[in-house]
Write a structure and sequence with these properties.
single chain; alpha+beta
């Protein structure tokens, strides 16, 4: 098969797969809408934890999880979620919310958009010792 036809087939195939993925709704970012969703996402990664409370960010892209091992965060990572414990993480306030620095090359930082009331509530929880 000539190279120029092969290139057209490969590029067209990749484009078609991307289009179908989008049209079928598989490219929508995750939005946490309930405590049950946040709990399920956390327990998928940390099944041995006991969850005391969940606090979902107003935009639904993250949730603060209080566990018997200390606080953690579940956040949207594309159409899926990721969960990190916050021991050793740096928490910084930003004008739009909180910035969490994990010191992990796989997830270096997370910016969580929070209104002032939610930001102070989250900051209070994160400053408490487990």
């Amino acid at each position: 098969m000539p190279l120029h036809i092969l290139i057209i087939l490969v590029v067209g195939g990749i484009g078609l797969i991307a289009l179908l993925t989008h049209l079928l709704g598989l490219s929508r970012p995750l939005h946490l809408t309930s405590d049950a969703e946040a709990r399920t996402a956390w327990l998928r990664i940390w099944p041995e934890d006991t969850i005391r409370a969940t606090h979902i960010a107003p935009d639904g892209t993250a949730a603060l999880i209080e566990t018997d091992h200390g606080p953690g965060i579940v956040f949207a990572l594309g159409a899926d979620s990721c969960a990190h414990r916050l021991e050793g993480a740096e928490i910084r306030e930003t004008p739009g919310g909180l910035r969490i620095l994990f010191h992990d090359f796989a997830a270096p930082r997370l910016d969580v958009a929070l209104d002032p009331a939610a930001r102070s509530h989250w900051h209070q929880i994160l400053s408490e010792k487990p």
